[in-house]
Design goal:
The structure is a single chain. By secondary structure, the chain is α+β, with helices and mostly antiparallel strands. It has a single domain, classed as q2cbj1_9rhob like domain (Jelly Rolls). 15% of the residues lie in helices and 34% in strands. The protein is built from two helices and eleven strands. The strands form two sheets. Strands 1, 2, 3, 4, 6, 9 and 11 form a seven-stranded antiparallel β-sheet that branches. Strands 5-10-7-8 form a four-stranded antiparallel β-sheet, with no helix packed on it. The protein starts with 10 loop residues before the first strand and ends with a strand.
């Protein structure tokens, strides 16, 4: 008997280790410093980028991307390569009180070559345990259609997932902003 896996859907979670030199507060400050209408991503092709904000280079963001790449390589023996495209590069999602991020994926059906294979959300906000906020992924599993998988957002937790997965972030019911950094990768 021989088995071939034709497709794989991934949702991988972890946290940036305390031994890292990465300073989450510096990244959070950098995200806030770039939170403006001028940095909101605009796309004429009806793609769900209106919730995202472009973030320019920052050393600690680079260290985060290196951390993800190195740990993925160690665990799965494949290399993540950051997508250089400005719109698909590093960006942030900032949810104010009452805001929800609608379902979307990071794959452009009309431009598969430049679409990522893996996406990553890294939470930089303290989330109240009594009032959790989840990222909800929608997927099909053979005959089982419209399945849902949810992962809670937690401070310093990253969620690495297959970019084609439709996902949403639940409504922010706290008084504080929810800040996520979003990065995107090809696999080698």
């Amino acid at each position: 008997m021989h088995k071939d896996t034709l497709s794989e859907i991934k949702v991988i979670t972890g946290t940036v280790g305390k031994e890292s030199l990465l300073k989450q507060q510096l990244v959070k400050n950098h995200v806030f410093a770039n939170y403006s209408l001028a940095n909101k991503i605009k796309d004429d092709q009806y793609w769900h980028l209106e919730d995202y904000i472009s973030i320019p280079y920052h050393q600690h963001l680079q260290w985060f991307e290196d951390y993800i790449r190195d740990h993925y390589k160690l665990e799965y023996n494949r290399t993540l390569v950051k997508i250089p495209d400005v719109k698909l590069g590093t960006r942030s999602l900032i949810q104010q009180t009452g805001e929800q991020v609608n379902y979307h994926s990071h794959v452009k059906q009309w431009d598969l070559e430049n679409s990522p294979e893996l996406s990553c959300l890294w939470c930089l906000s303290e989330i109240d345990e009594n009032n959790p906020v989840h990222v909800i992924f929608k997927y099909d599993d053979g005959r089982n259609k419209d399945r849902l998988w949810k992962v809670p957002l937690e401070y310093n937790k990253y969620i690495l997932f297959s970019s084609h997965l439709e996902h949403t972030i639940e409504k922010n019911t706290s008084r504080d902003f929810i800040i996520n950094v979003s990065t995107h990768y090809h696999l080698l």
